[in-house]
Amino acid sequence: MSLQLQVVPVTPFQQNCSVIWCDVTRRAAVVDAGGDIDRILAFVREHDLTVEKLLLTHGHIDHAGGARALADALGVQIEGPQRAESFWLDQLPSQGTMFGFPRSEPLTPERWLEEGDTVTVGEEVLDVLHCPGHTPGHVVFVSHAANLCIVGDVLFQGSIGRTDFPMGNHQQLIDAIRGKLFALPDDMVVVPGHGPFTTIGEERRSNPFVADRRYG
User: Fold this and answer.
1) Quick one: which of 115, 125, 122 has its CA closest to 145?
2) What is the dihedral of CA 63, 64, 69, 75, to 10 degrees?
3) Contact 109, 150 (CB under 8 A)
4) How far apart are CA 103 and CA 101, in angstroms?
5) What DSSP character marks residue 134?
6) pTM, whole model, 2 decimals?
């Protein structure tokens, strides 16, 4: 396995910004650069990585607030989320005001992602799943080679994403988790947007919101 991952917690929300890289080429991507870009850059330099792109799971301020500034600093493009997420990315300035974050300008990625697309990191390839519900254009990145998925705020250890924000949809979220994420291998590692890692199988067994026993 040549895909490596390290979480760099960012923002007062302790969002799990993930730096992923191909160990063969030392080429990297930063997933959900919500803020604290100096911390992210320090990690990249310490490990002698070449960032070739930024990836976004969704447009909430703690996941996307630092993305444009980091992309500009590195001279790279942003890929994702799915285009319905323009609803949230257009509102980054007001989100920052609401939560006391540094100002972020509205953001349009260079590449919108759709279900079935792939993204590359060096020699590694990750599949894209569109998993709406928490937000309308939320995407998940899946590495079958490394047996891990970066799920943003779709699924957490023992919990699921909130759906009480504008454009949230509880049933869509449940359907995305059970129909798409739970189709992945039980031993696949889940990297959530906040909190500890878990596995698909553990959440199928014990998550009170989406466990198999709840749905028969």
Assistant:
1) 125
2) 100
3) no
4) 6
5) S
6) 0.98
CA distance 24 to 22: 5
Which portions of the chain are predicted below pLDDT 50?
none
Strands 50-55 and 27-31: parallel
- pLDDT value at residue 215: 86
Q: By three-state DSSP, how is residue 154 classified? A: coil
H or E stretch covering 108: none
The neighbour count for residue 42, using CB atoms within 10 Å, is 12
- Using CA atoms of 137, 115, 119, 57 in order, give the dihedral in degrees to the nearest 10: 20
Angle CA 170–171–172, to nearest 5: 90
Check residue 202 and report its DSSP letter.
Answer: H
Tokens for 115, please give them. 């279900």
Residue 97, phi then psi, degrees to nearest 5? -65, -40
